[in-house]
Automatic annotation (TrEMBL):
Keywords in alphabetical order: Endonuclease, Hydrolase, Nuclease
Domain spans labelled GIY-YIG: 4-82
CDD domains, per the entry: GIY-YIG_UPF0213
Protein's name in the database: Putative UvrC-Intron-type (URI) endonuclease
Record Pfam families: GIY-YIG (PF01541)
Organism of origin: Brochothrix thermosphacta
Domain of life: Bacteria
């Protein structure tokens, strides 16, 4: 039995803003955002590009990461994303 993956993801919107979200299917969700489904924020800010994602073992942890990201200032979000890129290198 395959275990469901839970993702926290960040999109870069056409207006250069960030959008953080949660999903279990990251490819489908990015496509939905670009088609204008499921999110008022990104609807008028298309196209969007997936710039970051993290995998979590359960929904709760992924949604906590999403919530924490959304509460940050723009500068804090940029620092967070930069620190994650360094970790991946």
């Amino acid at each position: 039995m395959e275990q469901t993956k839970h993702y926290f993801y960040v999109l870069m919107c056409a207006d250069n803003t960030y959008y953080g979200g949660y999903t279990t299917d990251i490819v489908r969700r990015e496509a939905e955002h670009n088609r204008g489904f499921g999110c008022k924020y990104t609807f008028t800010r298309r196209p969007v590009e997936l710039i970051h994602h993290e995998v979590f073992e359960n929904r709760s942890l992924a949604m906590k990461a999403e919530y924490a990201f959304k509460k940050q200032s723009r500068l804090a979000k940029e620092r967070y994303l930069k620190s994650k890129k360094v970790e991946e290198s």
